[in-house]
Every structure is written in structure tokens, then in C-alpha cells.
Amino acid sequence: MLGTNWDYDSNARGRFDALIVGSDDAADTVSAVIAQAGGRVLPGVSWDGALERLQALSAVPVVVLDARGIAEDAIAAMLPAIDHEAAGRGLPLVIGTDMARIDVIAASLVAARHEIVCDPSAMDWIAAIAACGLSDRFSLGETVRENEAARLARLNAEVARIADVLARLSTREAASQAVPIDRSDDFASAAEDAGSSSEIRQIVRARRQRDRHLGPGLFEDPGWDMMLDLYAAHLERAQVSVSSLCIAAAVAPTTALRWIARMTDAGIFRREPDPFDRRRAFMFLTPRGLEGMRRYIASLRAMGLPLV
Q1: What angle do CA 11, 16, 21 make, to 5 degrees?
Q2: Torsion 163-165-170-175 (CA) sign
Q3: What is the DSSP letter of 252?
Q4: H helices of the chain, where?
Q5: Model pTM score
Q6: CA dihedral of 84, 90, 94, 100, whole degrees rounded to 10
Q7: Nearest Cα to 159, choosing from 262, 30, 280?
Q8: SS3 for 184?
Q9: pLDDT higher than 70, residue 147
Q10: Residues 141 and 6: beta-carbon distance below 8 Å
Q11: Among residues 122, 100, 113, 116, which one has the least CA distance to residue 26?
Q12: Which of 48, 217, 223, 261 is 20 to 30 A from 161 via CA?
């Protein structure tokens, strides 16, 4: 049906239930995914009745919501309550959306474990449901499992590498302040020259030229692209919405959303709701992320290396 090989071992894993909230189109696609995984799809429900249905169910391992075509005000009114209920019961949420609704969804999700997929294909639904901790209940076909596992492993490894670099820079700064030693190689004297917003924006534009002249998708570096965008916004005293940060990542929105989640978990990004609009949230670098960026730029200055 979906061109995907699924293996289901009912004796080893047991069946699982899934509640689908949203359109019939999404229900058809997701139902096929869950059925091939050996799961049972509970009767679907609209967004208006989702919270009541969820509260009435005793066990639902995963809740799948399709927000495409749903009014932003309706999402803002319902999703925080669903998020709270899911978090209280330890239920993961899988949310399908389009670019127009990314901000209101990001602003509404603060507690529950979740995976967001943008303009999802059947494969996106598969990957998101598997990532929500159901891998012990079903096994994906080899191609799906290896591709998704490899992609997530690369993402996590890169986030860990960035976090490690920032941690070492911060540790070095703390040590240099605690011990009065020769600071000639410490770059602290260059810390004030930590780049201007116009310079950072020029770097971003230069990075986009690679795609223009050599082809898109060959030089993806979403974590760094987002850090540059957030750092430039910090220097400009500007605010960056979740959807804008997805655009800055220069990758598919679903990939960008995963990077945002991992960078936030790593303590490099932070998300704050808009105090004037509950349908939107803004992304910032944490103090750790800001200090790491400053010291990275200062170290390049001291070594006479270009910012890239």
C-alpha cells in the first residue's frame, strides 16, 4: 500500500492503539501506516472533540494530530490543553502541519513529547511515529529504519559536537578568569569584537551562494545556519519566529524542526512565547549559545581567520 516493508511481531511487542485527530485525508494515510505496523486505529475525532475523547480513553500510546487546514485560533484554543493532557499521561504527540501553522503549533507545545512534520508524506508520518518511542512495539522495514536511524544519528552527533565546542569555550573562559595567567592565547581581549549583524548577514548570504551556483542540498548545515541567524537577530535586537528560523535553516521544514528541538534540548536554543500573541513563539540563543558564538568569532579574529 505504501511501498514500505513492515515487520510486526505480535507476540514480542503486542498491539498498540492510536488516536487520529483531524482530516479524513490524514486519517486514511496514517491509518494505513499504523495498520501495517500492527496497531489499532481508534475512531477518529475532530479537533473540537479531541480533548474530551482523549480524556475518556484509558490507554493511547500515540496521538496523531493533523493541523493542516485548521484555523490558527482553533489550534491556539485546543492544542495547549491537549499538550497538557498528553504530558500528564506521558503520551507522545505527532503533529502534521504546513508552514502557515508552524508558529501557532510551536507556541502551543510546551510539555508533551512531540514530533512535528511539515507537509508530511507517508514516510514522514512513519518516521515521526517511530521516533515517538514506539520502536519497541513494531519494527520498520530495513530501508526505513536504516535511513531514519542514520539521519537522526547524524543530527544528534552534530548537535553534540556543537554543544561540546560551546562547553569547551565556556570552560576555557571560566578557567582564564579564575587563574591569573598569560592571556595572550586566550582571545579574551578580542571578545568585544564579536562581529556585527551586517557581517553575520553577509556570511549567511555567501553561504546561500553555494546552493545557487553548485546546486541545492549539497552543503546542508542547518544547525550552523540557524545559529548565525539567531546571533544576527540578537545583535539587531530582533525576534525570530519558529517559522522564520525554519526558513533560515535552508532545509526541509520537518528537518529544521527536528534541529530546533535537538538544539533546544542541548541548551543552545531557547523558545519563548510571544506575550502579546499566543499563536506565536520566538527563538533565541541561550546565554551559553551567545557566549560560545562570541568566543568563536573572537578566536577567529585573533588567529586572522575569516568568518564562515
Answers
A1: 160
A2: positive
A3: -
A4: 10-13, 24-36, 47-56, 72-89, 102-108, 122-129, 142-178, 197-214, 222-236, 242-248, 253-265, 287-303
A5: 0.74
A6: 20
A7: 262
A8: coil
A9: no
A10: yes
A11: 122
A12: 217
